Each structure stands twice: as C-alpha cells, then as structure tokens.
C-alpha cells in the first residue's frame, strides 16, 4: 500500500506495488520450496499441511494482486485524468488520458479537456493560446463520438476570434481587425449570430480604414475601404455615414488619376457624378465631365511651296468633295494658327468628333486641304473630343494615306 504512493502518478504507484508483490510472491515460493525440503514437509511436522496451504494462499494472493495492480494501470490513468480535469490541471489530465489509451480521432475525454482548457483560456483573455486548443479539437477529433466537443470548440473558437478582433479595433489596428474578421466570416461554422457580430465589427473596421486613408490623402485606398462597406455590409450604419466622405475620396482619386493618366479618371468622375451628384464633389465632377476640352498637335507640311498656316475643325469631310464645298467647310470651321514650329492648339472645344482641315494663302492663291483614306474616303485626322481629357493629335501631316 505504501508503494502505491511512490509513483509519479497513480498508475506508476500501482506498477511499483505490482512489481513488489510479484517479487515477494517469488521469494515466498522459493522460501516455501526450501523449507519444505528442509523439514517443514516431514511427516513429523504435524502442522505441515496448514503451513503449506497458508503459504500457498499468500503466494497466490500476491501473484493475483500483482496481476491486478498491473492490469488496472490504464483505468488508473483515466481515473486520475478525471480528477486532474476537475481540478483544471489541463496538461497533466491530457497526459493521463493519453497514457490511458485515449487518442484522436475518437478520444471524447481528450477532446473535452482540450475544449475546456480553451474555454478557460478565453475566460482569462489568452485568446491566441485558446485558439490552439480549439484548433486541436476541430482538426483532429473527427469521430462522431467527439462531435459534441467539436461543436463546443467551434463556439469557443469563434468567441476567441471575435474577442481578438475587438482588441484590434480598440487598439485602432483596423487592418488587423479586417483580416481577422474576414477570416471569421469565411469559416463554415460561423452561424447567423456569428455572421451578424462579425459583419458589424468588420463594417466598423473598414469604415475607419477609409476615414484614415482619406485623412492621409491615400484616396484610392479610402475608396476601396468604403466600397467594402457599401458592397459587403450595406445594411450597417457606417454604409449610411460615408456618403459625403466617399465623394471626397472619389474626387481626390479622380484628380490623382487625371494628373497621371486622364482616361483612367473618366470612370471615377462618371461614378462621382452619377452616385454622388447631391454633393459638392459630385457637382464639380459633373461640371468637369461636361466641360469643353483643348485639342493640340503638330502639323508637318511636306508641300514646301504651299505655306499652310491655319488649321480648322469641321465635320462631314469626304474624299472627292468639290472646291466650293471644301471652301465652305473651311469657312464654317473653328480655326487656329499653325505656329512657326508647327504646333497648333484649339481651346474650349465642345465634345464631339471633328475632322481636321488646313488652309494656306500665298497672296495669289488660297489652298484648303485635308487628308483622307483612298479606299474609305474618310478623313485620316479626326479629333475625338470626349469628357474630361484634352486631345493630343500628335503629328498631323499632309502625306496622302493609301
């Protein structure tokens, strides 16, 4: 009985007692054999039968005790594991359950201990450590016997993740919060309650990202963050709060796009005018979209004897037109001078398509000319004036096109 208390756990003490009982039994068996041969078995010993039977019973009891003490070790591991689990000594309990033969995927006691450990860590706000315990249960304990514990672990896992997300929000780590919350929303066991909570927090995080990016004039990132709120969390209060700031972000982004690649800014301005026309930014964008534009280019004259010095914008030019008709088009065109270096510029041209025509007067004769494709008879140089962006015609030359 003393040896039962000497092991590192109950099973080890039982093993010690088992070994001692086996050794005592063997020693008694040897002693009995020696004594029987040394006179105890003599017919002159009137108590020989009682002595032999008593010794045999003791030896058998010791052998039985040794076998039983050895065979109950798994049960002792399990019993001690239950005791340790009740004392919330989680890792020792897990060790005992494991030595008792429990393992994934169907060790319900192990799964329960891991889950309870995770929930205790949640309660003490050690959320990352809790997640490792829950993950062990969710990933490894797949048997039906452990499904109730898997469900508990899933609930605890969601609670830990939401708590970590709230911590990120409180610390104004909005990027970290959105990453965590986006992950939560994609987890299969995130139920309706989970979806509602995570969505509300995620909308707040993205809204705050947008506001921060707007303040630092990172307009594209602000627009992207606000769009997340509008598309993924349209029913969140933040979706109704960002209207004015989204207009500011779109206008800021549009201006940046316009300065680097004007055509890329057109969709931004169009969205701003269409969806945020009630804001000052939307009205400004629509005004810019409707505004006339400039047309610039460079004229290269290969006819050295004809001094073309004016260029015009007209419509309806076609190959094979008569002289009078062509001069009439010139007379009705919007004209500008061709500079000595060949550059020309039109200012404030309404949106539309314009054919380019040029003019010369050498004091004796007037010349009007345009270049067209010989097959289609359509003008080669057509200025397409659209919204927002000036038009650069590049090099315009009177080389005939095939």
From TrEMBL:
Entry annotated with the keyword Zinc-finger: no
Hydrolase as a keyword? no
The record ties this protein, via PROSITE patterns, to:
TPR (PS50005)
Q: Where are the TPR repeats?
A: 203-236
Q: Kindly state which keywords UniProt assigns to this record, in alphabetical order.
A: Membrane, TPR repeat, Transmembrane, Transmembrane helix
- Provide the transmembrane region boundaries: 12-32, 52-72
Supply the name of the protein: Tetratricopeptide repeat protein
- Provide the organism lineage as a comma list: Bacteria, Bacillati, Chloroflexota, Ktedonobacteria, Ktedonobacterales
């Amino acid at each position: 009985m003393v040896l039962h208390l000497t092991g590192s756990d109950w099973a080890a003490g039982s093993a010690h007692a088992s070994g001692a009982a086996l050794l005592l039994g063997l020693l008694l068996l040897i002693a009995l054999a020696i004594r029987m041969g040394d006179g105890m078995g003599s017919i002159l010993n009137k108590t020989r039968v009682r002595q032999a039977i008593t010794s045999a019973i003791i030896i058998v009891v010791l052998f039985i005790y040794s076998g039983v003490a050895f065979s109950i070790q798994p049960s002792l591991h399990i019993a001690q594991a239950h005791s340790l689990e009740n004392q919330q000594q989680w890792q020792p309990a897990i060790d005992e359950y494991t030595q008792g033969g429990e393992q994934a995927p169907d060790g319900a006691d192990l799964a329960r201990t891991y889950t309870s450990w995770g929930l205790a860590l949640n309660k003490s706000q050690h959320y990352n450590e809790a997640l490792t315990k829950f993950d062990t249960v969710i990933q490894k304990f797949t048997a039906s016997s452990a499904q109730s514990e898997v469900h508990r672990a899933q609930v605890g896992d969601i609670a830990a993740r939401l708590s970590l997300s709230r911590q990120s929000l409180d610390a104004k780590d909005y990027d970290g919060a959105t990453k965590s919350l986006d992950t939560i929303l994609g987890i299969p066991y995130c139920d309706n309650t989970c979806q509602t909570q995570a969505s509300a927090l995620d909308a707040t995080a993205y809204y705050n990202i947008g506001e921060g990016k707007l303040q630092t004039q990172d307009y594209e990132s602000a627009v992207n963050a606000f769009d997340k709120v509008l598309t993924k969390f349209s029913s969140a209060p933040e979706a109704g709060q960002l209207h004015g700031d989204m207009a500011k972000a779109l206008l800021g982004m549009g201006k940046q796009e316009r300065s680097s690649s004007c055509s890329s800014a057109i969709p931004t301005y169009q969205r701003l005018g269409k969806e945020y026309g009630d804001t000052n930014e939307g009205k400004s964008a629509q005004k810019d979209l409707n505004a006339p534009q400039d047309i610039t280019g460079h004229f290269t004259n290969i006819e050295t004897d004809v001094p073309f010095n004016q260029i015009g914008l007209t419509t309806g030019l076609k190959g094979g037109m008569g002289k009078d008709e062509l001069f009439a088009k010139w007379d009705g065109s919007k004209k500008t001078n061709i500079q000595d270096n060949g550059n020309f510029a039109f200012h404030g041209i309404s949106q539309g398509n314009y054919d380019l025509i040029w003019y010369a007067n050498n004091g004796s004769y007037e010349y009007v000319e345009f270049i067209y494709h010989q097959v289609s008879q359509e003008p080669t140089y057509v200025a397409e004036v659209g919204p927002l962006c000036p038009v650069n015609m590049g090099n315009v030359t009177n080389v005939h096109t095939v």
